[in-house]
Amino acid sequence: MSELYPEIEPYKTGRLKVSNIHELYFELCGNPKGKPALHLHGGPGGSPGAHYRRYFNPDKYHLIRFHQRGAGESTPHAEIKENTIHDLIADIKKLKEHLDIKKWLIFGGSWGSTLAIAYAQAFPQHVTEMVLWGIFLGSKEETNWFYQKGASIIFPDAWEDYVAQIDPAERDDMVSAYYRKLTSESQAERLRAAKAWSSWEGKLIMLNPDNTLTSEILTDNFAVSIARLECHYFMNECFLKPGQLLSDIERIRHIPTAIRHGRYDVVCPLEYAWKLHRAWPEAKFNIIPACGHSGKELPMQKELIEALDNFAK
């Protein structure tokens, strides 16, 4: 089976208080007695999207999804205080305990792959398998490629709109310049910067741009949360030690894992997924031709569903 499963709604939703200021939204889908699987969304500051529920066989999987701190329906919206990768890892542990789940498969792409690897390295005993795509290792090199110079060479037309928000004197450090705007006291300035940041990402996420996806990314709430939180994390090198995810591979080498990456992913270049593959050859690694960054592109969708079906057996 490599086609989408039928549309499905959560059989239960809830909220979980995880700190003095943060409360998470979560949902449960599929078979409560099925194989537990946790979907970690991208961003930071994104949301899981209903579409991804259809990658999981609803008879076989008990699918758990939540909105990370500051994202989606979690509150407070777009909050960067008490928001680090270490906080998110602790939140996953609290959610697991709250739902009384012993172990689960982890499914995540882009930032979701970063968080999945970091969580698995912190709690390898809690993870049965992983399905990862659009690999992002959280390094300064990767953020420089996308937000400073790299992708700009391939998409100079889209880059002009992104860079236009920043004074020429500040363009030697675009992430810092955007951070100042995204944390401005002016709501109008924050929103303008957020939409420019989100539009740049939206235009490059798929090999063949999807106007529906781009319009979703540019809604006010989504643009503000993903721009503020991504910029906050990238300013702090995702709160990871340099090379941490690669150097700690030994902790998760035994976990059965499927890794998929688009050949023409310009958001997270293949070079970094290849570094992960070289450090972790035990994981099943496939390069998907004619595919970009999004998990919604048909060749990637097919691969992810097949990987999940294989683990469901």
Notes on the structure:
- By secondary structure, this protein is of the alpha/beta class.
- The chain folds into two domains: about 10-140 and about 240-310, 3-Layer(aba) Sandwich (Rossmann fold); about 140-240, no CATH class.
- The chain is built from twelve helices and eight strands.
- It has helices spanning about 85-100, 110-120, 140-145, 150-155, 155-165, 175-180, 185-205, 210-215, 220-235, 245, 270-280, 300-310; strands at about 10-15, 25-30, 35-40, 60-65, 105-110, 125-135, 255-260, 285-290.
- Helix 1 (about 85-100) crosses helix 2, helix 5 runs antiparallel to helix 7 and helix 6 packs across helix 9.
- The protein is globular.
- The relative contact order is 0.15.
Summarize the structure.
With 313 residues, the chain is an alpha/beta fold. It has twelve helices and eight strands. It has an eight-stranded mixed sheet with strand order 1-2-4-3-5-6-7-8, sandwiched between helices.
Notable characteristics:
single chain, 313 residues, alpha/beta, 2 domains, eight-stranded mixed β-sheet, 12 helices, 40% helix, globular
Topology:
Layout: E1 12-17, E2 23-30, E3 35-40, E4 61-66, H1 85-98, E5 104-109, H2 111-122, E6 127-133, H3 140-147, H4 151-154, H5 156-163, H6 174-182, H7 187-204, H8 211-217, H9 220-235, H10 244-247, E7 257-262, H11 270-279, E8 284-288, H12 298-312
Parallel strand pairs: 3-4, 3-5, 5-6, 6-7, 7-8
Antiparallel strand pairs: 1-2, 2-4
Helix pairs in contact: 1-2, 5-7, 6-9, 7-9
